[in-house]
Amino acid sequence: MKLMALLVVTSVMGASAWLWHRIPPAPVAIELQGPIPAQTRLSSTPRAQFTPNTRKGYYSIDVVGDFTIPSTKKIIFNGAGRNLHVDQDRTKLFRRGFSAVERSRMVPNVEVWPDENTPRGWQSKLSISQRAYIVYRNYFTQSFGLAWAENSEKAPETIYKNTSPTATDKNNIYQACVELRGHCYYFGDCGPNGNNWKATFGTIILDMENSFWIKHEQEHANLHTFLMKTLQENVSPETELGSADLFAHNSFGYSRAIDYTAQPDALFRLPAKHTTTSRQRGMPDEIVGKSPSDYTDFLMPGTYYLYPEMNYAERHLYDGDRHWLAALLGEQEVNMKMSTKKRIAWQWLFNQQNAEFANNAQANHPAPPAIAEGTAIFYWFTGAYGVMFWDDHKDLIPDQPLPTDPNERGLGNDRNYACYEHYIHGLWRIFGHHSDLFNGKETYLNEATECSYDGGKTWYGYNANQIKTRDLPFARAIVNGNQILVAATKAYAQPNQKSQIMVRYVQNGYQFYTTINLKGDEIYLGRATMKRAGVR
């Protein structure tokens, strides 16, 4: 399970520690000189008409029709309930916004063979790009005795590679990586020569999460660097490789001002170098000076929601308060400044378990409609590459009776999964109508999205924390040629609450102004063709 939000770092770090860092000043208001130019009306993106599911252990994947995401993006399904629709149409998942499926959710004997006795000539129905695999820590701990995968303090005693030609001990990182290449068996596409086999997944994600509290930073960085390099040597040329431990900075979902001036995390910034025992344990000289990110294709900044983000009655406007949209955008805004690597976030539509927070001991609170839909829309305005859509439950059995064990209530089959419907609806709204804008030529404005909250007198480019702490509507824009796509919302607004925000784009010869009227916490999405400055 992903634990990105499990560690409550802010509760153990005193507030005084935050004050050691410089808080960036708020952007200076840009005052408009003269009257507002003629405005351009945005064309609102349609909404599908559907009644959200009320059954337990069920959701409809048909709340929208067919659509696919652009080839420049990736959405991997590792959620719950594919069994609800796979017998009807195995391919439907790929026509509802998902581009790949994790191995544990694949259809046996059709998409993946369940064991190594693959019939001669059998091949998976999935292309390599449609295959994904999460390598959890138990692969290393249970199969290869690598306790370091669970406990970073074991780094100084972990073996990189057996250097003796007669050694048979499998408890080393090299052997664990080499044996992953045998996964080509399960798809029927191993080559004739065993020495040339490669793991034929389109995406492999390492999920050990042993990097939160690091005692032996250098040893830890060395091991991760060797691990990622060795994995790269044993996967298909088509495979993209990443790790849940790799991001420039983890804000743990808090979207604080201090995150915007943070230094990169230790694992990201420390290059490998020899220690007193690293050579004896098989660390090669060739990785010296390299870091884990040198051998990864994407980074994984992003945090699961906790219950406070889903509770409209909570506070959401102070620096240390949790806020679904500020967290979603903030993690990306901070990380994109530290690295140009592609980004894939984990997304889960239920609250992460965390006993430090009230109502958070179990993952039994689904994302409310606007949060589920908004997550599927606003995330893509950050320029991110992909998503690992995750759930702690696999198959769903609808309409089960109330569990006799109170600890099981609200979990698994006892949950309402309408949040999935709202999420898929969000994907359909952005990609089912605007895929043409994601062709690699688009510009993501992010914090440079200029907004006015006083009818056009002054304009600001705020980051997610600044919008949160000022209790303002959010807006983000994407520009591609003369096309502009804008998403906006007033997070946590009451149903009849009305808000207004203006957005403009006055660059590259364009002079675009528009006004967006919001009701409640609706997720607004609109598009317009911009006119050149001076053109009526």
UniProtKB/TrEMBL annotation:
It comes from the Bacteria. This is Uncharacterized protein. It comes from Spirosoma validum.
